[in-house]
What we know:
By secondary structure, the protein is of the alpha/beta class. It has one domain (3-245): Rossmann fold (3-Layer(aba) Sandwich), CATH 3.40.50.620. Helix content is 47%, strand content 13%. The protein contains 10 helices and 6 strands. The protein has a 6-stranded mixed sheet with strand order 3-2-1-4-6-5, with helices on both faces. Strand 1, helix 2 (34-46) and strand 2 form a beta-alpha-beta unit. Helix 1 (3-16) crosses helix 2 (34-46), helix 4 packs antiparallel against helix 5 and helix 6 packs across helix 8. The protein is globular.
Amino acid sequence: MTTQKMLSVMRKGVTEYKMIKDGDRIAVGVSGGKDSLTVLKLLAEYRRFSPERFELIAITVDLNFKDRPSDFSPVETFCREIDVPYIVEKTDIGEIVFDVRKESNPCALCSKMRKGALYDIAVKNGCNKVALGHHADDLIDTFLLSMLYEGRLSTFAPKSFLSRTGLTLIRPLIMAKEADVISYAKTLPVCKSPCPANGNTQREYVKTVLKDIGENVKNVREMIYTALTHPERYNLFDKFVKETEEF
């Protein structure tokens, strides 16, 4: 997957959901994984020809897992090469989640604390927006996670305003497929995740379930994505109740 093709997909999402405006200062949350490095690289490239003038900084929240130190030096070198300022913020999130709280399902608490730290650093550095690397497959997986484990029909939005911080959260890869991100990220300095729960989460289980369904329904992810992003195909009980009240 070439940069040009990935930029085309990202630009479509950025334009359709009006994610970037003139004067924006965007903090890119960089975990060191394929998704965050891809969105960082593409935004740095997009900055060169975008009709909107904007600034970028990259922020890594170091979860600081006990006995599993992270090495973000490849990311630091990469950011220097693409001319993006880079900040690494050390935290004790890993210790709190796994050693103090001993969470049986650590992902939810870890995500909440990590995002909170990211938003604080973004605000301190004068940013008005935060970009995350979530792609189309994440949108689908999050929907299924909410439905199966919380009994809710819910997923994240391509753009949302965080009233508590004054930041706007954007997801420029919202239209990109994970397979394309995996292919593209082979050229990037992806860091292996030191998380003890890596590969053994509810999200991984959902991915496995969809893979199994895909053996018989070849376009299962495309169908779910279409259902989520086309409101005219929405037909649930709230519509039924509204219609019956009109008669």
